[in-house]
Amino acid sequence: MFCYILSNPKPCVYWVKLDPKREIDENTNALRESTSLKNLNDTYMESKLEFTVKSHSNLGIFECRAKNGIGEDSAKVELRGSPPVNGQIKSIQQTNVNTLDVNTTFISYSPILNYKLLLRQIPSKFAWELPLTPNETFFYVSSNMFNDLFKIDNLNMKSKYGMQVIANNEFGWGNASKEVFYQLTTY
């Protein structure tokens, strides 16, 4: 998180995580006094608060406070978690007459807890929910991308299917991906 400060003389800057259950006390709630106050010019500075979000307790409202000999001011920012986003069916491969491998991806900034593949035989509106456990997934740290593989057996030959993927993390269920269609063929 960044805090941009317009000040002359140079201020003392510190960050506070606001907790609605406690009285604000800069000695107990102060996260860090800004030692990395970067001068952008004579009167404009940047303070940066860096930390890794590891759980719900790291989320909330943070306040950047600046104080110099003339006065003081503050600004607030809210850090929120989000359910998985950008779910996609990346590829579908027919591995035998009635089996499909469905590769899917999601972006999530928190570990995925559950996946479901929604499968329906066209033209039916009814969809089966096929669960996938998280230990069957691959995670790429650099992109926060979770990849997984669904193996679907016992499908009807020569049938057309519609598929969507949905996932959840500690912040809830994401939106279902766009529906992708696949026509089974005989070998």
TrEMBL record:
Origin: domain of life: Eukaryota
InterPro entries (alphabetical): FN3_dom, FN3_sf, Ig-like_dom, Ig-like_dom_sf, Ig-like_fold
Residue ranges of domain Ig-like in the record: 1-80
SUPFAM superfamilies documented for this protein: Fibronectin type III (SSF49265), Immunoglobulin (SSF48726)
Ranges that cross the membrane: none
Designated name of the protein: Muscle M-line assembly protein unc-89-like protein
